[in-house]
Amino acid sequence: MLPAGKQRESYPRPIPEHFFSFRSRAKISAMAFRDLRDFINELERRGWLKRVRAEVSPELEISEVYDRVVKRAGPALLFEKVRGSRFPVLVNAFGSNQRMALALGSESLEQVAGRFLELANTPIPEGVLDKARLLPRLYELAKIPPRTVNQAPCQEVVVKEPDLSILPALKCWPGDGGKFLTLPIVLTKSPKTGTRNLGMYRMHIYDSRTTGMHWHWHKGGAQHYREAEETGKRLPVAVALGGPPALVYASTAPVPEGIDEYLFAGFLQGEPVEIVKAKTVELEVPAGAEFILEGYVEPGERRLEGPFGDHTGYYSLADHYPVFHLTALTHRKDAIYPATVVGRPPMEDCFFGKATERIFLVALKKLFPEIVDLNLPLEGIFHNYAFVSIDKRYPGHAYRIMYSLWGMGQMMFTKWIVVFDKEVNVQDISEVLWRLGNNIDPGRDIIFVKGPADVLDHAAPLTGLGTKVGIDATRKWKEEGFEREWPEEIKMSDEVKAMVIRRWKEYGID
Ligand SMILES: Cc1cc2nc3c(=O)[nH]c(=O)nc-3n(C[C@H](O)[C@H](O)[C@H](O)COP(=O)(O)O)c2cc1C
Ligand SMILES: [Mn+2]
Question: Whose CA is nearest to atom 31 of ligand 1?
């Protein structure tokens, strides 16, 4: 189905040490895709996208085809003929580390992280020479803010009677409460400060003009809505389907509150995101999007949302959420509908998570230089497990790292944090289990703490509030009360290894 060797899946590796030196040669510039079709063309050129010409149903059939493809690390899929709609459906465009890196304008997630580090390492200029050296960097930085345009592809067609049923929205799983928009970029502005937020929150389609608005308590959109409810005013909302792939990613990233995801996407792709005034709301939408939904969310209104087969691999139960009302629908002439399906991992959303792990590790390492590496394994769907290795410097250091991580943005949801010594490769689950089993005394090395849980955590005693586990799997020191001797790890001597390699043929084994 693919040219051999074209689409090999690989786990992200730790960012190479040289990225952390000032003289790093890592490229700061990136290639930018202005929109989804730009990205699709490049995917196709690389043999990373497959067109499906057979007619398919948006109800369950696309899900099942996609699930089989994503589970074997297969290509992006463009379903050209979807029953009931004239628009093709794109799924799995971001479904591998390589495709995700490409979406962010790089060849690997390590390279993306390296660019982020370059930015973080930008020195404050002291002399003329420093300033001169910074010029190319400043030129790059100037390209971060969005650029306003007057005419935009996303507004080529303004639908007279806006109607969501023209979209080939998917019913993903048999128990789902209906059809959902699964890759929507939801844009709002703070009624108090005017700051923008773009977040990805799925939308349950109720009828031709209304959907659910599934932003969890902790998210940017929910905060803007809270502010709107305080003043009793409607919250204008715009939703983009498609757009620059870096923006699709940025809307899923744990960008700190108050920082505009347009800026983050502009940085990632090394080009400003082009934006245009929406038709019926005071918001600026991505010019390169495929579809734009405009509307509002009414204060005080709630409606049952879900159930929905979620990325935990379980259905999230129906619950009450705000309601989105559609006032305008615009799209490209030949629009492509972007979607994903979440479910038991690995699924496409896992690669959004891996990109976040690699990129935000750079920021974590800036704050906590003792952190060596971090693995949020796919099976833990990013909020269940964090395996972290540190350069342990003082007694109790592992605990400091646990509490710090629980205090960092969406890492507050992490249910299990396990801290290892620096030599442990936390990307290798076999090694993680081996070290974990050997190096802890459960009674001494495990702590339970209370904190916010992911809304999707169905085991927590209350929605959004639960228990967390911290495990200190580092070697225990005398200063930590460990009076016994800690044994050496078994390793063969280098001389013997070299000798055996030299003599290997003589043994006649291979
Ligand atoms: C495919 C996909 C679907 C998502 N659906 C939701 C959702 O329905 N509700 C939600 O609160 N977060 C959802 N998320 C996670 C948010 O996008 C993520 O937490 C993001 O950082 C939120 O941005 P914000 O901090 O600007 O609110 C989803 C993520 C992905 C990748
Ligand atoms: Mn945000």
Answer: 349
Is the Cβ atom of 344 under 6 angstroms away from ligand 1?
no
Indicate the pLDDT class of residue 118, thresholds 50, 70 and 90: confident
From the list 116, 336, 148, the residue with the least C-alpha distance to 245 is 336
Q: Which residue in 392, 316, 322, 351 sits closest to 11, CA to CA? A: 351
CB of 339 shorter than 6 A to ligand 1: no
Q: Which long-range contacts link 429-438 to residues 24+ away (Cβ below 8 Å)? A: 429/377, 432/375, 432/387, 435/473, 436/471, 436/473
> Which atom of ligand 1 is the closest one to the Cα of 220?
27
Residue 228 near residue 297, CB atoms below 8 Å:
yes
- According to DSSP, residue 453 is labeled -
Instruction: Name the closest-CA residue to atom 4, ligand 1.
Output: 201
Model confidence pLDDT, tens digit, residues 205-261 = 999 999 999 999 999 999 999 999 999 999 999 999 999 999 999 999 999 999 999
Question: What pTM, to 2 d.p., does this model score?
Answer: 0.93
Using alpha carbons, select from 206, 163, 205 the residue that is nearest to residue 182: 205
What secondary structure letter does DSSP report for 348?
A: T
- For 474-496, write each residue's pLDDT tens digit: 999 999 999 999 999 999 999 99
Task: Decide: 420 in ligand 1 pocket, CB within 6 A.
Answer: no
